[in-house]
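ZP: hey, is the cobalt (II) ion complex queued? I don't see it on the tracker
AM: it wasn't, my bad. submitting now with these inputs:
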Amino acid sequence: MIGRLNHVAIVVPDLAGASANYRDTLGATVTEAQDLPDHGVTTVFVELPNTKIELLHPFGEDSPIDNFLMNNPSGGMHHVCYEVEDIHAAIDQLVSEGARVLGDGQPKTGAHGLPVVFLHPKDFAGTLIELEEVAAA
Ligand code: CO
């Protein structure tokens, strides 16, 4: 069901510092910071040859990652995102296997404008999983 690794998301306390770290110390290509008010985050993408790293920083009040940063003040890995071709079929299969889809169980429009859902970390070895529907290759 799952396809390619789309991205790994890392919450960072200092977005400019983390961007510079990836760009200058690790020699990666990084995008400009982008505010996503609907999602309560500012993102920077680190573009790697085979995948992306998403640097996440809280935007505005009551960001969904405020608690994560409070519990992990130096930042840390937040979620991994796998691609699926049909998110509704994926949800049906996961629910029938007993996995828990977060929220109301329906896809939302994610940070990249594509349908996404998040799966309960306790069902997947303590890892928050995002599924993103991408067009079939
Ligand atoms: Co993500």
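AM: back. The chain has one domain: 5-133.
ZP: great, adding it to the tracker
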